[in-house]
Write a structure and sequence with these properties.
The protein is of the alpha/beta class. The protein is built from eleven helices and nine strands. A nine-stranded mixed sheet has the order 1-2-3-5-4-6-7-8-9, sandwiched between helices. Strand 4, helix 1 and strand 5 form a beta-alpha-beta unit. The longest helix is centred in the middle third of the chain and has 17 residues.
Length: 304
């Protein structure tokens, strides 16, 4: 593996933030792009962002990483941001790529967080590369959905579940116009996507700091096209190519009772086939509650 480049960036928008950014050439020739937040000597946390998302995904209060003393590493998944697409991929390759990145960074094991569509990737890393994961947190994570679950989903996720049954071309046809809308007006398009979100989620979407990172992240994630998003949606909404019951590390799962993106019924069904999982349920919350609970989630993870 060859390290193609490393830059040091001192700003994100109008906010001062020291961070590193790099590119890694993987064994099959693909490029993996990643970015780091927080102090370079902080405790390392590998963060799997939501779908679609990029290495620019982070909590808007970036100073919290310095306060907690954590070095947060976020990588673009294949076909998103600056990472090379891998046609027909599943979830497990993301775990393998993460292992290669940790090798390159000289990190034997790390704490792991997977948020929303990044949840399955965190589980895959823990299942397939258990020695790399000290402890993990899944936050409003996606779980395998059945037809009985889809009535309460936001429209896009309901349509994506159906599209996954029709094949990749159907999925791409669904997501390509959504991608164009997100690039034109990230906030407006996101509000439209979250059409049935509970009031608690709509309140988060009104926060200017949250909006700042959303715009930056979505434009970077989707700049290549909709192909990488379609690949990922097929992997997440289809049959997973790893066994989540193989996860053996300490795992906390945070979820909102009223999550309209990732239904709690699917989460409970997944937990029934897994080992000991600590479910932390937010009774009056939806999918974006993690924005408010950032410090709580980080503090809990670092105790394990």
């Amino acid at each position: 593996m060859i390290h193609d480049g490393w830059t040091y960036d001192e700003s994100v928008g109008d906010h001062d933030l020291a961070m590193g950014e790099g590119r890694l050439t993987l064994g099959d020739g693909r490029t993996l792009a990643w970015r780091e937040y927080g102090p370079p000597d902080g405790r390392p946390i590998l963060r799997f962002q939501g779908m679609p998302g990029s290495r620019r995904s982070r909590h808007p209060h970036e100073e919290s990483y310095d306060r907690f003393g954590v070095r947060v590493i976020v990588a673009d998944r294949p076909g998103l941001g600056a990472s090379t697409r891998l046609e027909g991929r599943g979830i497990s390759v993301v775990a393998d790529d993460a292992g290669s990145l940790l090798d390159h960074l000289g990190l034997e094991s790390v704490h792991v967080i997977g948020t929303s569509g990044g949840g399955p990737n965190a589980l895959a890393l823990a299942a397939l590369h258990p020695a790399r994961v000290r402890a993990a947190s899944v936050v409003v994570g996606a779980a395998p959905v059945l037809e009985e679950d889809i009535a309460g989903l936001i429209g896009l996720n309901r349509d994506a579940w159906r599209a996954s049954r029709g094949g990749w071309d159907t999925m791409y046809g669904l997501l390509a116009p959504v991608r164009r809308a997100l690039l034109r007006d990230p906030l407006g398009a996101f509000r439209k996507v979250m059409d049935t979100a509970p009031p608690s989620d709509r309140a988060v979407m009104d926060d200017p700091d949250w909006q700042r990172v959303l715009k930056e992240d979505q434009r970077e994630a989707l700049r290549q096209g909709a192909e990488g998003w379609a690949d990922e949606a097929m992997a997440v909404f289809g049959s997973w190519d790893f066994d989540p019951s193989a996860v053996s590390c300490s795992l906390t799962w945070w979820h909102g009772e009223h999550d309209a993106n990732a239904p709690i019924a699917a989460v409970r069904r997944l937990m029934a086939v897994m080992g000991d999982v600590d479910l932390r349920l937010w009774n009056e919350a939806g999918h974006l509650e993690a924005y408010r609970r950032h410090d709580e989630i980080l503090a809990e993870l670092l105790t394990r």
